[in-house]
């Protein structure tokens, strides 16, 4: 499990009022932030996630790096739609937040939502990529909303980063469609390791939310793949399943530990008798 500190940057520009993603570009991001937080903290209990915006007068840190989703939720409630996005400024502020992480052993990662036209030129993006790479900061980009407008520029930008290993960077482009934004992001390398992605492609999603929806006990048995399903209900079902899986894993680990201790104690008692 990768030990990681992640800053999530949401696009809160005026473009986020658009309703081409359910229920809007802005709300679709907020739902996805919760999935990102759950995936990151469930993969390693020492992982931390922070949140910030990049539009308006200047980027604003809504929540410092934390394991408490309540702080993230409070930050989401205080954010608002305003102005134009400032991609480079937002990423630079995120770098400062990561630099102040308490555990310096944590890898550094930035996940940024880009839902409005990227105004920065290629030279500025190249210089930013060089700075991030020098400081071993990985970057994941969720390209949606104005995805065709930004695709070429973002592909060139992300191509300057490492593409393999635990510190790989990713570009995920999500077009408008019947599926929810968080569902599509949840099926990508941003939140999944290679084994999970292979299982999805083979149709064996199981607890990992496979694409086929045919796995016994998989979350899509509950209608998670139904585009007409209430997004809030879908989120509640997903999180409930994740919490139940986490509980089962902890119980199994506790049982194994207790059995090992029992064997060790019986061995000590036998040695004393001898």
TrEMBL record:
Protein name: VWFA domain-containing protein
Source species, domain of life: Eukaryota
PANTHER family per the UniProt record, alphabetical: 26S PROTEASOME NON-ATPASE REGULATORY SUBUNIT 4 (PTHR10223:SF0)
Coiled-coil positions: none
Annotated keywords: Proteasome
Family indicated by similarity: Belongs to the proteasome subunit S5A family.
InterPro entries linked: PSMD4, UIM_dom, VWF_A, vWFA_dom_sf
Any one GO BP annotation for this protein: proteasome-mediated ubiquitin-dependent protein catabolic process
MF GO annotations: K48-linked polyubiquitin modification-dependent protein binding
GO cellular component term, pick one: cytosol
Ranges for domain VWFA: 5-188
Region (Disordered): 240-274
Record-linked SUPFAM superfamilies: vWA-like (SSF53300)
Biological classification of the source: Eukaryota, Fungi, Dikarya, Ascomycota, Saccharomycotina
